[in-house]
Specification:
mainly alpha, 9 helices, 0% strand, binds protoporphyrin IX containing FE
């Protein structure tokens, strides 16, 4: 296949297909099956490994997600921060640490779901595909941090303009075509995950239960004989 067509497919057609599917299907699913709009907790089924897997994963993934958003929306602030080498090192090492925390949590989530019979039963094929995609995404992210350092700077200077060119419906892929294969893999996988998002438990990210912050505390009581 013609290389330039292949690049157009991966970095223009695929992103638009993914974004289109994301917006259409998240709205459709919310309206058609709002009760499925969650990541049903499995804590009642297993509560020992749950904490050590789900909590580190979320601390890691939330910081990494916010980091990506800052680089997309206020790239200049990152470039300004990184203009001093010490601050660049601090940012890079922190990003790597949170990436590793995400990876450790995610491996814990997968092991917990694979080895606990009760949890395996409530894990769907879609969950397994999602976990495989997230694992590949996080492993490639951590590998990039190790093999292609200073990502916080080159993301803000090269990938942010590419992403904005997509959002502004005026795609310019010159910024990405010269990137190393690992970076391209991470970008393609990220768009695939965006497209797959509405079909998975990831929809819970869109319905953060904010009222939990101010509602009255709730006491849960179990009735019946202790088994
Ligand atoms: C925006 C804030 C977020 C909140 C409040 C939140 C909350 C939750 C909750 C309550 C669960 C169920 C945990 C349980 O089993 O008890 C969960 C599971 C999960 N979340 Fe999030 N989450 C957030 C962001 C994210 C993000 C950004 C990702 C990115 C990939 C993510 C991926 C997952 C996955 C994969 C699970 C399933 C873990 C499992 O049960 O094995 N979450 N989340």
């Amino acid at each position: 296949m013609d290389k330039s067509f292949f690049d157009q497919f991966l970095f223009v057609i695929l992103p638009y297909l993914s974004l289109f599917t994301f917006f259409l299907m998240t709205v459709y699913r919310y309206r058609a099956q709002s009760f499925s709009y969650s990541s049903l907790s499995s804590q009642f089924l297993e509560n020992e490994h749950h904490f050590w897997a789900v909590v580190p994963f979320h601390y890691g993934v939330l910081v990494i997600t916010v980091g990506h958003l800052v680089a997309i929306f206020i790239p200049r602030s990152i470039l300004l921060w990184n203009s001093h080498p010490l601050r660049l090192y601090i940012l890079e090492i922190s990003a790597l640490a949170f990436g590793l925390l995400t990876l450790i949590g995610l491996v814990g989530i997968v092991i917990r779901r694979a080895t606990t019979t009760r949890i395996r039963k409530v894990t769907s094929p879609t969950d397994w595909i999602l976990f495989a995609m997230l694992l590949a995404l996080v492993v490639s992210g951590v590998a990039m941090a190790l093999l292609h350092p200073w990502g916080s700077s080159w993301f803000a200077s090269n990938l942010t303009p590419y992403l904005w060119s997509i959002f502004k419906l005026n795609p310019d892929i010159t910024y990405v075509t010269s990137m190393p294969a690992l970076v391209k893999f991470h970008i393609v996988l990220a768009f695939l995950t965006v497209g797959f998002f509405p079909f998975t438990r990831l929809v819970h990210i869109l319905v953060i239960p904010n009222p939990y912050l101010w509602r009255k505390p709730q006491v849960v009581r179990w009735y019946g004989k202790k088994q």
